[in-house]
């Protein structure tokens, strides 16, 4: 029975934090409902009270011991993945090699199993500068110390990527016991403080990755495996390394009891400067520009200008471009060193802000053409965070609702009420009028919302009754009404757009589980037959998919090209009988979107709101159940949108 699928089941239930129907869980995992029941039984057996997963008429939900069950799983060491990591760690630690028979006995496996594990190690080493050498029963790992450390770091990150729940990336690095987990928190605090004293702002999202490299370096040095001399730097990457290197050396002596040599300190200082810090001081912009490559700044500016025009967003700001260019420069240096920064927010950013993530993909695609940039989803997520920060103000303006306050005039009561509304709700609601009459005319209440202290027969659907002295309960009711109104408007636009773009000729059910590229060709072929796109659009869609998976939720993938070259906007939809593999997960619906230049405005509406609709598990199941025919699919989709 697959422990990995048990973990995915637990993780899905923890994310939902509500009842999930058995058939939906089966689709998410790519198994049968009977297998789901077996997984639930196995998961509950991990904890004493057997309440990791609760079953009921509505399906399953995470129980009181769900997280404890995940922790129990992570401590298990007999799985093939855990055994592979143990084997690699042994090869890294034993410079003279390991004996195959002795290692099989120590791991309590047969010699045939260990030979199979060694074959997996060889596959793991493909594309690296490391290799296994064998002399009869002794196997050795050959390669430079730097490459061996990179392998250890890769293993830790692969374990994080493969898990469907948070895992400790330091577990492998601390395996020898030379450094304890209790030493990490004081080391992190001292590192952040030291960088602040040197005039840098610290990126907390990436500091864990740098700590991991410091721990790996310290552990290897204690084992007599330090880097020889100062390693070669990438262009311009040595600026400012000396004070940072001295600070890291001092902290490792004080916190870990390790004396690092010049090679290790230079390597770690570069990691810090290209991963977790940005210039501080009295004039950070001047400091940043002083160390910024003009060619990189020009490429970033061009990419930002193009994305601004393509997606009709306001990104053309000098301060934003400077910050992003500095980030891209560090990104290029990390790529040259075959080192990448992990982002713990990648998954949530992609699901919650698909449009911002898409703009980031467009910028990265342009930089790939101009600078040869090669990045993964984690690095794209960092670019998305820069873009999201820049767009936040304009996004708030787009969602701002207007309101009229109706409060009978009595001394300054209406002025006090308006002041309190502005303070409590001003970020999402703009009060444009205050009416002091008891019976306002219809022409006086033409705003999105009416906040009234008296019952009103007119505009009842937009009216929220509040107290003359605003209470916390009033604030919550207004916020809820505003949220419902915003959602209704967004989905109304989506319903209007979808009715124009969907057609029975471009509907496939059941969608075969062929893999991303074959499904893209299948759905794209329907639009080619209709004369809406050409084969080049399909190839561009595949190229976009290779940049970053378009599975923006557990249920939906939206493959599309970055270029809006369709003759007319259309969406080809495929609905799986269960689910199909897509990226590292599975989805139930694939909507291949082809947009034309004339419908550029609709891209954000359709793209972002479609992801929102298919992010709700219950809605997905309703739509999929009716998806045996195009008419049933469209009817249920509209019903879900209408609420």
Automatic annotation (TrEMBL):
SUPFAM superfamilies registered for this protein in UniProt: Phoshotransferase/anion transport protein (SSF55804), PTS-regulatory domain, PRD (SSF63520)
Domain PTS EIIA type-2: 500-643
Record keyword Repeat present: yes
Annotated Pfam families: PRD (PF00874), PTS_EIIA_2 (PF00359)
UniProt cross-references to InterPro entries, sorted A to Z: BglG_antiterminators, PRD, PRD_sf, PTrfase/Anion_transptr, PTS_EIIA_type-2_dom, WH-like_DNA-bd_sf
Keywords assigned: Repeat
Domain PRD: residue ranges: 291-397
Designated name of the protein: BglG family transcription antiterminator
């Amino acid at each position: 029975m697959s422990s990995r699928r048990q973990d995915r089941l637990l993780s899905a239930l923890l994310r939902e934090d509500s009842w999930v129907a058995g058939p939906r869980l089966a689709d998410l995992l790519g198994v049968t409902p009977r297998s789901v029941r077996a997984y639930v039984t196995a998961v509950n057996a991990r904890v004493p009270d057997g309440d990791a997963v609760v079953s009921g008429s509505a399906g399953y939900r995470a129980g009181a011991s769900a997280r404890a069950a995940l922790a129990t799983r992570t401590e298990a060491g007999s799985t093939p993945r855990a055994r592979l990591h143990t084997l690699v760690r042994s090869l890294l630690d034993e410079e003279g090699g390991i004996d195959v028979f002795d290692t099989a006995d120590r791991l309590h496996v047969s010699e045939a199993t260990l030979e199979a594990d060694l074959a997996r190690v060889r596959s793991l080493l493909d594309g690296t500068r490391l290799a296994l050498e064998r002399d009869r029963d002794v196997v050795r790992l050959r390669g430079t110390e730097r490459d061996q450390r990179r392998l250890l770091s890769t293993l830790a990150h692969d374990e994080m990527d493969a898990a469907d729940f948070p895992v400790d990336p330091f577990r492998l690095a601390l395996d020898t016991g030379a450094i304890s987990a209790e030493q990490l928190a004081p080391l992190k605090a001292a590192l952040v403080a030291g960088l602040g004293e040197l005039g840098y702002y610290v990126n907390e999202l990436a500091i864990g990755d740098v700590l991991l490299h410091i721990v790996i370096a310290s552990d290897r040095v204690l084992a007599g495996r330090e880097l020889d001399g100062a390693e070669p730097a990438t262009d311009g990457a040595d600026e400012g390394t000396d004070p940072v290197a001295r600070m890291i050396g001092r902290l490792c002596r004080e916190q870990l009891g390790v004396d690092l040599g010049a090679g290790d300190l230079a390597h770690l200082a570069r990691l810090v400067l290209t991963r977790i810090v940005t210039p501080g001081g009295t004039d950070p912009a001047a400091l940043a520009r002083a160390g910024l490559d003009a060619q990189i700044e020009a490429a970033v500016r061009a990419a930002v200008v193009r994305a601004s025009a393509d997606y009709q967003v306001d990104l053309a700001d000098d301060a934003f471009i400077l910050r992003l260019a500095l980030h891209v420069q560090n990104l290029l240096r990390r790529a040259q060193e075959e080192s990448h920064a992990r982002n713990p927010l990648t998954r949530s950013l992609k699901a919650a802000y698909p449009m911002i993530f898409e703009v980031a993909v467009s910028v990265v695609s342009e930089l790939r053409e101009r600078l040869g940039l090669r990045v993964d989803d984690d690095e794209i997520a960092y670019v998305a965070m820069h873009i999201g920060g820049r767009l936040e103000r304009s996004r708030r303006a787009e969602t701002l609702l207007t309101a009229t306050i109706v409060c009978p005039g009595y001394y300054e009561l209406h002025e006090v009420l308006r002041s309190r509304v502005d303070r409590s709700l001003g970020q999402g609601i703009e009060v444009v009028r205050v009416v002091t009459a008891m019976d306002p005319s219809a022409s006086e209440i033409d705003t999105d919302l009416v906040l009234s202290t008296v019952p009103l027969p007119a505009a009842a659907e937009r009216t929220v009754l509040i107290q003359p002295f605003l209470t916390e309960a009033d604030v919550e009711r207004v916020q809820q009404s505003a949220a419902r109104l915003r959602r209704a408007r967004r989905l109304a636009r989506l319903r209007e757009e979808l009715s124009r773009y969907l057609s029975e000729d471009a509907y496939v059910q059941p969608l075969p589980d062929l893999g991303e590229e074959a499904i893209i060709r299948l759905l794209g072929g329907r639009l080619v037959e209709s004369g809406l796109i050409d084969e080049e659009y399909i190839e561009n869609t595949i190229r976009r998919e290779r940049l970053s998976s378009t599975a923006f939720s557990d249920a939906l993938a939206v493959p599309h090209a970055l270029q809006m070259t369709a003759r007319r906007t259309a969406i080809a939809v495929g609905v799986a009988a269960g689910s199909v593999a897509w990226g590292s997960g599975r989805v139930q619906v694939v909507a291949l979107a082809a947009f034309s230049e004339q419908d550029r405005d609709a891209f954000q509406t359709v793209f972002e709101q479609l992801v929102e609709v298919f992010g709700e598990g219950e809605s997905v199941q309703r739509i999929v159940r009716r998806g045996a025919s195009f008419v049933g699919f469209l009817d249920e989709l509209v019903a879900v949108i209408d609420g």
